[in-house]
Design goal:
Length: about 325
Amino acid sequence: MPEHPIYRNALNAIQVGVEDFNEGSPPRLSSAVRNLTAGILLLCKEKLRRLSPEDEILIWKQISPSLDDNGKVIFEGSGKTTVDVSEIISRFKSLGIEADGKLLDRITRVRNRVEHHHVDDVGQIRGAFADGLLFLSQFMPKHLGVDPQDEIDDDSWALLVAEKEIEDRLRAECRASYAPIDGPTSLTDAIEREGCPECSSHLVRQTQAQNTNPFEAQWACRACGHSSSNQEWLGRILPNFFAGASFLAAKDGGPDPLDTCPECNEEAYVHEEEMCLACGFELEPSECAVCSQPLGLDEYGETICSYHRYVAERERDR
């Protein structure tokens, strides 16, 4: 059976991306990450195409029901837009396709940043190629029935492997720099998963490797050079780290796991940890002077609860 154009275009895009990466000039680096990402997303669409009952329906962004000549309900793609990365991940989940959505999201986030910023350092996008190799190695055998090493040009595959080995070594060195930190595991988990708030690289290190206090840490990115305090760094990455949990909480009507810290004003107070992961603030237990109910985060600094404050203000305004 001849290869479908989506599949062939996917492999071609990955090939061109590797060639651009190997050339190394800033314009070619930007092209490299765009082509790599495009190729990987096309492979995901190829999986959806193969699962489509007819007319490649699952790759289209908008799907509309209609009736055929026999009065049977059918679904048709409408518009000219195919699914984007979030819709691919969503459809994979609903179809029971096990794919690493976090890897896919990381790769596309680097692509999005590259499209809006000048890139002149291979280190800023090496992580995308390392993650890309990992995704291809997991996805293609399981869901497309092929070994990526057999499908991708030998030189291109060798370069992908070499870049992943470099990236893995650098990431291990970075993780070692914050291994001594004594604090909530969600703090270092966020650093490792979200990476740099400027360029999305996961080459994030602690500049003082012997420091054990997370709230005194100074973080730095080995890819783009961005550096800042723990307060600024965590304040920027935690909303994305908790984005999934926050979405589910809103959907189910539950409390948001993340809140604004009353001390540093960063969106970094984690209710499960009962502390702010940016500055270390912990809410001391206190009670309403009127009803003895525990005071919450939004009542920090008050002596009475929000209800009795409302009652007092209403009486004052009468």
